[in-house]
Please model this.
Amino acid sequence: MNLQVSEKVCGPCIEGKATRTPFKLTPRPRSRRVAELLHTDIAGPTKNCGLNGPRGGERGVAVVSGPAFSARQQAVVLARVGESAALRCNVVRLADRVVSWVRSSDLQILTHAGYVFTADARVSCAEAPAAGAPGAVLTSRDEGWQRAGSVHTLRIDHLRESDSGRYECQINTEPKLSLFFNLTVVESQLPTVSVRAVVEEGADGEGGAGGVVWGAVGGAAQLACEARYEPTPTPDVLGALPPLSIQWLHEGDSLDPQSARGGISLDTERWAARTVSRLTLAALGASDAGRYVCVAGERRAALRLRLHGIDDRDYEVLEGEIETMQRDQAVARVSAAVRRSLAPLCAWLALLLGLYLT
Model:
């Protein structure tokens, strides 16, 4: 084994004297080629699903920092038997390195460098620039890929329960980088997220009909929203579901408790398959009135905050207009019903009158 001698000088000085650590013998890193061979299936690839096949970056090009996994990952995936599942591994600064997918249960290499390394025809892979990268197709040599990162997808079709387990997204650095994904395949129906606005009595502000909460200028108001999984999932399915998270919007803009407005607080209660979020607004002003939306996943529900002394008159006018419209519509419906009921009688009288005149 080739050895290197390394020496390190400590940063701070003790009593005006610099100290040195003892000599340390460290092994020279293995060559990149050897490292790649250790993670390559001898049988060879069965198909290519990369953008441009295996990528080999330019030698001698300086990289500011090495490859890494993006902070945003969906590491838990739930799917039904017979359907398809996609595990997406987000990587930044890949440069001349490659990504592999490994099944942890038997250490089977499923894909490597954009090639499928298994005879299972249900397995496929794809590589693409991350969202925001310029151009439709990028390779590892493109600067856009380096800035925006890349998404390496392992797809399994016609799922079986035996496909459940842990899968490893691996970058062939030295030492290698690994990120683990958990796939759960179930036969039961997958739950969906439902969201509803909750108008609570006794909370700050006054509850009203139709998802309306009343408050007073200078006072406080509380809006509440509930998100839940339906139907209620079984424990094994629940463990594979992401936790329910609720976000609030006011007139389309995200609400931030740390904003300059101040006086915004969020209180969240969590249960196994249910979450309730309460938004409290203190020192209410005219700009706080309006439409509020709570969002969980792709579902949302709306509430409206009205302020006494500001919205009262407009609301009363609107309420009066609605009552007038409803009354007019009721009168019109009655008149139409009367005309329909009298139509046969009028026709009969007209016939008799015609016979009499003849």
